[in-house]
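Appendix B, Record 12. Input sequence as logged:
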Amino acid sequence: MNTLHPFDELVQRDDPDIRLTEAALLFAQDHCPGMDPGEWLERLDGLGRRVRRMPCKSAEDQVAALRAVLVEEEGFSGNRDDYSDPRNSFLNCVIERRLGIPISLSAIWLDVAGQLGWPFFGVGLPGHFLIKRLDRQGELLVDPFGGGRVLSRGGCERLLSHLFGHRIGLDDAAFEPMGTKATLMRMLNNLHSIFMKHEAWSQVSCVLVRMLALEPESAFIREQIAQVGVKLAELN
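Logged structural output:
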């Protein structure tokens, strides 16, 4: 009897029933043998308990509380020196090293905020991932990679314009919340790009299989899996 990989089983649920960090740890397990996701989820729960103890009366207070624990106390920061290190996408390594890329750091912020029932969501801008707090009073855009700074929409455009080297304009659609499965796919795409660049075909294959679990009807992903299978066969 075939047993589904724990990631593949988890992502069969609807978005609200998937803990983003749990799923991210499960795909990291493919590349970090022996890693226990439960250990790292407990660490995230501990961060949530510390943030919970901080007084928060406003949206700004919530951002400040997250920043105080995650950045000022724990030292989570963006890995600007080695952005393409695959460990920046393995959540256990991000938690242990306190280094990550925008989407992996955002996943940690979102997890802690979610434990407290705070209305934070992921925002997948081109080339950069943010989180935002959204309620009837409006939105607060927060950049975990940038130390938890609060950005305006104009500030986001300036950030991306600097990143791409030309002016970037963003419409309302760019700031729509990104769902859990879409966020996981973006995380996996990052890993796929890194491993493809290094022709690490075994790792590429693992990533593609996880991507197929998210989009089981994708003929494109199936074709890529077949192509990588040929590469692996040539090595044996």
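The chain has a mean pLDDT of 96.
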